[in-house]
Design brief:
heterodimer, A: 466 residues, alpha/beta, Aconitase, domain 3, Aconitase, Domain 2, five-stranded parallel β-sheet, 32% helix, 17% strand, B: 199 residues, Aconitase, domain 4, seven-stranded mixed β-sheet, 9 helices, 16% strand, globular
Chain lengths: 466, 199
């Protein structure tokens, strides 16, 4: 019987079985950022411990970084304090930090891959639930809390239980204007926001195999929104092409040897899965969330469900509609938006910005909409500017910002005001997520966000792509 | 503090019922309170936005101010991996959460800080919630050892994953020491990985 990639990576990194029955798992790459690490470093200090493998630890700043004025010291004293703490910790413990003074700063889940730190067959941990993003390379990558950050800093290991594996095969081909974001929103709507608890999701099938690495990252990123702590795609030529020439990727003959090993880590054709699900890629249309969790989405041509709709949790639907101020049975298309946000670890990579720019090109943002584009990293920003995308966005009336997490989570100056409705390419539409306790989020693809910015309301981007 | 002082075999106290599925960590502790380099003071901000928008929110009700057992429904603690969420609950005085189900990351984070999480059937959760709503003063006793909770004159079975139970009972929920026990093996395993050696 063959093994899945998850099982192979797990077995390779298992140090021992702990008395509790958990596995002591070696972590191949530990990514850290300013929000979930300061207390962990303090705990190390209190115990007189060192960072066990500083060379396998890499830090950046993203959550609290302002995207408008990135000069130090920041206007926000707390943000300044957090950055200073990370700088001090990295210096003291010998960890490499890509901060704003370097040209490699960006969202941790954007820079790990683009620097080639993220590689197939690794175990990767970071104090952030969207660490599942790195599974796009065939890594076993997952989010942890601060005490676990401490554990990894001190020992490069975690005490953790293995997961079951669910293979999700997406058949067919995605239509024009349909993206990885729509596929993952469809999957979460189908399997539910807690359907993945206890599972790693393996994404497969022709539609996934055809996806770029950027698109695979979007899918893996949102695994956690479906309850799955881990999502991954088996490594293939698309993945290897992406890695070739990256600063931390192996080079020359080592790259060829690496490819052989990476291929060997992919799931075997006869691997056994704990569950298998098939999704028809041909049938997926652009999707938009109407509620307060990422499972509450509909196709753009569909209507907002009623509390009594079959299969729905009536209380949850009712609560969501009340908070969102939306009407059951109304089409989602035509929902007015006040803000449009292209960015976040889900959708802020070059290919995302290109798709949004295709829509923005030659058009104007609706006068009542505040629209911003926030590249995921300085590298993405440079590449986009080299193509002139920033000019396309500015000409259309979008603001072009510096790299950071921005309006995804409201730990920096970018946030909703009052009951504003935001068309957002981010990952969570939780109550209050974008910084205003009453603010409302509609999740969709970057192209759909650009279309909503132009129309001033939710609209089908397929009518705007020539 | 050695592991003996950290042992948690039971949690006794009044309970606070919090109805609803998929209560995410942004609601438990909104992100703006993560702008700090310590966990100090998080307790007073637990459910801050929900408390403001819902005057009848249990965490806004003084009758539950001293509660130490939180009763919840499905998928509690979904979303962000912020440990600040269980930290806020613990600093608010919560010593155990009993629910229909928990998000995995929340469960892991809670365990590593010695906040006991246990699951129970939907019917038993309803019974516990109703008991706490009827009488906020009613004392419940959760036994990690026996995997049960005593409430309203009854003893209800709880499910506590083996590893969680073991780490609470032995006081090894803070895993760092355990993970460093055999560091030579860790070093050897690290060195054997193809990507660590540069292929």
């Amino acid at each position: 019987m063959g093994r899945t990639l998850f099982q192979k990576v797990w077995d390779l990194h298992a140090v021992r079985r702990l008395p509790s029955g958990q596995t002591q798992l070696f972590i191949g790459l530990h990514l850290i950022h300013e929000v979930t690490s300061p207390q962990a470093f303090d705990m190390l200090r209190q115990r007189g411990a060192r960072v066990a493998f500083p060379e396998r630890t890499y830090a950046t700043v993203d959550h609290i970084v302002p995207t408008l004025d990135q000069r130090r010291p920041f206007a926000d004293e707390l943000a300044e304090q957090m950055l200073a703490a990370l700088e001090r910790n990295c210096r003291e413990f010998g960890v490499t930090l890509s901060d704003l003074s370097t040209d490699r700063q960006g969202i941790v889940h954007v820079i790990g891959p683009e620097l080639g730190l993220t590689q197939p067959g690794m175990t990767i941990a970071c104090g952030d639930s969207h660490t599942s993003t790195h599974g796009a390379f065939g890594a076993v990558a997952f989010g942890i809390g601060t005490s676990q950050v401490r554990d990894v800093l001190a020992s490069q290991c975690l005490a953790i239980d293995p997961l079951k594996v669910r293979r999700i095969a997406v058949s067919g081909a995605l239509g024009p204007g349909v993206y990885a974001k729509d596929v993952i929103l469809e999957i979460i709507a189908r399997l539910g926001v807690r359907g993945g608890v206890g599972y790693a999701y393996e994404y497969a099938g022709p539609a996934v195999e055809r996806m770029s690495v950027d698109e695979r990252m979007t899918m893996c990123n949102m695994s956690i929104e479906g309850g799955a702590r881990i999502g991954y795609v088996n490594p293939d030529e698309t993945c290897f092409e992406y890695l070739a020439g990256r600063p931390f990727a192996p080079a020359g003959a080592a790259f060829e040897r690496a490819k052989t090993w990476w291929r060997s880590m992919a799931s075997d054709p006869d691997a056994a899965y704990d569950d298998e699900v098939e999704i028809d890629g041909n049938a997926i249309e652009p999707r938009v969330t109407w509620g307060i969790n990422p499972g509450q989405s509909v196709g753009v041509s569909e209507r907002i469900p009623a509390p009594g709709a079959a299969g729905g949790d009536a209380d949850a639907v009712g609560e969501a509609l009340e908070f969102m101020g939306l009407t059951a049975g109304a089409p989602i298309q035509g929902t007015k938006v006040d803000v449009a946000f292209v960015g976040s670890c889900t959708n802020s990579r070059l290919s995302d910005l290109r798709e949004a720019a295709r829509v923005a090109s030659g058009r104007k943002v609706s006068p009542h909409v505040k629209a911003l584009v926030v590249p995921g990293s300085k590298d993405v920003s440079r590449a986009a500017e080299a193509e002139g995308l920033h000019e396309v966005f500015r000409a259309a009336g979008f603001e072009w910002r510096g790299a950071g997490c921005s309006m995804c989570l409201a730990m920096n100056p970018d946030r909703l005001q009052g009951r504003e409705v935001c068309a957002s390419s981010s990952n969570r539409n939780f109550k209050g997520r974008q910084g205003s306790p009453t603010g409302r989020t509609l999740l969709m693809s970057p192209a759909m966000v650009a279309a909503a910015a132009v129309a001033g309301e939710v609209t089908d981007v397929r009518g705007m792509l020539g | 503090m050695d592991n003996n002082d950290r042992r948690i075999d039971r949690v006794e106290g009044t309970a606070i019922p919090l109805r609803g599925n998929n209560i995410d960590t942004d609601r438990i502790i909104p992100a703006r309170f993560l702008k700090a380099i310590t966990f100090d003071g998080l307790g007073e901000h637990a459910f801050e936005d929900d408390r403001r928008s819902m005057p009848d929110h249990p965490f806004a009700n003084p009758a539950y101010a001293g509660a130490s057992i939180l009763i919840v429904n499905e998928n509690f603690g979904s979303g962000s991996s912020r440990e600040h969420a269980p930290q806020a609950l613990k600093r608010r005085g919560i010593g155990a959460c009993v629910g229909q189900s928990f998000s995995e990351i929340f469960l892991g984070n809670s365990t590593t800080i010695g906040l006991a999480c246990a699951t129970a059937s939907a019917a038993d959760i309803e019974l516990l919630m109703a008991a706490a709503e009827r009488d906020p003063e009613a004392v419940m006793t959760l036994s990690v050892e026996a995997r049960s909770i005593q409430a309203a004159g009854r003893t209800l079975p709880l499910n506590i994953p083996g590893a969680v139970r073991e780490s609470l009972l032995t006081g090894q929920w803070d895993a760092t020491g355990l993970l460093l026990d055999d560091f030579d093996t860790v070093r050897r395993l690290g060195a054997s990985l193809p990507y660590v050696g540069g292929f």
